[in-house]
Amino acid sequence: MRSLFLVVGLFAICSVLGGCPAWSSQRINYQDVSEGNPTLVSGLLPQGVAIGDVTSQRALLWVRTDGAAVVRVEWAPLSLWEQASKMATVVAPVSRTAFLKTDAETDYTLTIPLEGLTPSTRYRYHVVVGPTESSQSQPPGKPAATGEFVTLPDEHTSAAVAFAWSGDLGSGGRCRRGVDGYPIFDAIHRYHPAFFLFLGDTIYGDHVCPSPPNEPGADFKATTLDAYRLRHRYQRGADALRRFLVETPVYVVWDDHEVRNNFAGPYDEQMPAGRQA
Known about the structure:
- Helices cover 14% and strands 25% of the residues.
- By secondary structure, the chain is of the alpha+beta class.
- It has two domains: 49-150, Immunoglobulin-like, CATH 2.60.40.10; 160-276, no CATH class.
- It is globular.
């Protein structure tokens, strides 16, 4: 399949059925939470986090720890965090997961459902990461990430929505360059899209990214599970992409270069490794 340059479109869609009530996806500056504004510890989530597959009542949060660890996520509507921050003796009523362990089998990744959400509501989440010996009586270590997202309207509500779309990231020898890696994501972020459609070729497993001029780490073709995982980690090492994914919900589909050019679907011998990665 012909490689394309990264192209972004912003669209506004307004349904005439029932009008278009306001649904704001504008980012809100973080305020102190009830326990104080957490100081994030770098390095605990080396590839950052990603919020995705958001509906009116549910979202998925992806994380990857630096080795085996315990993860806990807590979340609540932004309004509750803000109310609690104004009252020093009040703790925000939040939902939280159990202590979840990462391990080598899944490359230390977790996809965590955040459920029971309210439509058209801005949520804030916090991710805490600690050692594997953490227990229910001893909370895991340190705050590793925080972000916000807005749930979709319910199925009976028409609303205006602006979103971005693109695909084909890091092809033809043009891959991550500099700390930001893919600065176009900062440009998209400034529009505060409600969500981002990532339309495939999220990696180019069958292309080589020479270094220099690119950042090192992708100067090989992926054919094994470990190699595919390395290529995905390479993409997530771009600071601009990490900043984007922490609070812009993403819906992702495959194309072909997640395995190799024009691969033969489930009949391709490399498909199992590419899919598992």
